[in-house]
């Protein structure tokens, strides 16, 4: 899959801010980004692979 779109928050769809931290791995750089909505996002090779922590947008 190829995408030219920058990653955005799955919770609020806001474009992601620069990563707070970056960790090289054999699968590609893993980056942690904190969105303006408070959601922590885990990115790998510019794709959101997970979230961490609470978000006000979480579905019940
Ligand atoms: Zn967000």
Quick synopsis:
The protein is an all-beta fold and 60 residues long. Helices cover 0% and strands 32% of the residues. It has a domain at 21-51.
Q: Determine the mean pLDDT.
A: 82
Number of helices: 0
Q: Report on the biggest sheet.
A: 4 strands, antiparallel
Note the run of SSEs as H and E.
EEEE
Neighbour order of strands in the largest sheet: 1-2-3-4
Inertia-based shape: globular
Q: Which stretches are low in confidence, meaning pLDDT under 50 for 5 or more residues running?
A: none
Q: What structural class results from the helix and strand content?
A: mainly beta
What is the CA–CA distance across the termini? Answer: 31 Å
Report the sheet-strand fraction. Answer: 25-35%
Describe the structure.
With 60 residues, this protein is mainly β. It has a domain of 31 residues. Helix content is 0%, strand content 32%. Strands 1-2-3-4 form a four-stranded antiparallel beta sheet, with no helix packed on it. A hairpin with a 6-residue loop joins β1 and β2. The radius of gyration is 11 Å and the shape is globular. 8% of the residues are buried. The structure holds zinc ion (ZN). The site of zinc ion (ZN) has 7 residues, from loops.
């Amino acid at each position: 899959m190829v995408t030219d779109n920058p990653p955005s928050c799955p919770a609020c769809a806001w474009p992601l801010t620069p990563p707070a931290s970056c960790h090289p791995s054999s699968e590609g750089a893993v980056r942690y980004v904190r969105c303006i909505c408070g959601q922590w996002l885990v990115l790998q090779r510019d794709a959101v692979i997970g979230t961490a922590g609470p978000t006000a947008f979480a579905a019940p």
